[in-house]
Amino acid sequence: MNKRLKCVLAYDGTLFSGFQIQPNNRTVQQEVEHALQKIHKGELVRVSASGRTDKGVHAVGQVLHFDSTLQIPNDRWAQALNSILPDDVFVKSVEEMDDHFHARYSVQGKEYRYKILNRSTPDIFRRNYRWHISEPLDIEAMQYACSLFVGTHDFTTFSSAKATVRGEKVRTIYECNVKKVEGEITFRVRGSGFLYNMVRIMVGTIVEVGKGIKQPTDITDMIKGQDRSLAGKTAPAQGLYLWEVTY
Q1: What is the dihedral of CA 178, 231, 168, 66, to 10 degrees?
Q2: Which residues are 241's β-sheet partners?
Q3: How many CB atoms lie within 10 A of CB 208?
Q4: Residue 230 to residue 219: CA distance in whole angstroms
Q5: Where are the alpha helices (DSSP H) in the chain?
Q6: Domain architecture of the chain: domains with CATH
Q7: Does the pLDDT of residue 30 top 80, yes or no?
Q8: Which string of DSSP letters, residue by residue, matches 67-114?
Q9: Distance CA 31, CA 48 (A)
C-alpha cells in the first residue's frame, strides 16, 4: 500500500545547478531521487517539491513529497536518506500525509530570506552565502521601501522576463522587512507565492533604494507600471535562502 510522505530538507546550493533535474547537471532533485532509488532497491521514485530554486540558491526548509510502498517508520526515513545523501543536502524530517497533500499545490505561503554583507571588506569564507556590498546603505529608506510591497499586487515588474508563468501575476505579500546586525543585512519576505526571480529582483531594487539610486516611493510606481525595466537589477543567487514553506 502506498504511503505519501512529506519531507523537509535543507541544502547548500553552491555546487548545484538548481533543484529541478536537468540533463548533464547536478541537481538537488537528482540526489534525492538517487537516494530513494537506492532505498527502493533500484525502483525509480519521483519527488514533487514546493517549487524550484535556481543555481546557487540555498534552502533551509524546502518541502517535497513522494509515494512509497515501503513500511519504514517515519522517524527512520530521515536517517535512511541522510546515510546516502551527500554532505550538502540534509533531510530534517519526514512525516506521513494523506493522499490529498501535494508539496506544491497545497502551499499556503512561503518565506524567503536574503543575506547581504554590508561592509568595506569582503569575507571570502562567506562569498557563496552572502552578497557583498561595500557602499553604505540607508537601512531606514530600505525598510520603508519594503513596507510598500506588502499587500496584494500584480508583480509583473518584479518577475523575470524569462518567466514561463502564463496568466495573472498577482501575489500577496504578508510581511517584508530588512534588518541590519553587525554589518549583515537580512531581507525577509513572506507571501502567498512568488514569481520567477521575484525575490532577487525585489532585493536588487531595495539595494538601489539603499544606495540612493531610487527613492522608496518609487516602489509604488514600479508596481503600477507592470514593466520589468522599471525595477532594479536581479540580486545574485548566493544570498538567497528558501526559509520556510507553510501549508
Answers
A1: -50
A2: 58, 113
A3: 19
A4: 9
A5: 28-39, 74-82, 139-147, 198-211, 218-225
A6: 3-97 (3.30.70.580), 109-246 (3.30.70.660)
A7: yes
A8: EE-----HHHHHHHHHTTS-TTEEEEEEEEE-TT--TTTT--EEEEEE
A9: 13
- Locate cell 535512511: which residue? 80
Torsion angle, CA of 214/194/19/186, rounded to 10 degrees?
A: 50
**Among 33, 239, 212, residue whose Cα is nearest residue 122:** 239
pLDDT digits (tens, 9 = 90+) for 147-192: 999 999 999 999 987 766 667 899 999 999 999 999 999 999 999 9
Q: Is there a contact between 191 and 172 (Cβ–Cβ < 8 Å)? A: yes
Asked whether the beta carbons of 33 and 21 are under 8 A apart, the reply is yes
Residues 6+ apart with CB under 8 A from 72: 39, 80
Question: Is 227 in the active site?
Answer: no
| Whole-number Å distance between alpha carbons of 209 and 141 | 7
**Residue 67 pairs with which residues in a beta bridge?**
4
pLDDT in tens, 53-98: 999 999 999 999 999 999 999 889 999 999 999 999 999 999 999 9
Q: Which pLDDT score is estimated for 201?
A: 98
Among the listed residues 12, 54, 88, 138, the single catalytic one is: 54
The C-alpha atoms of residue 47 and residue 28 are separated, in whole angstroms, by: 11
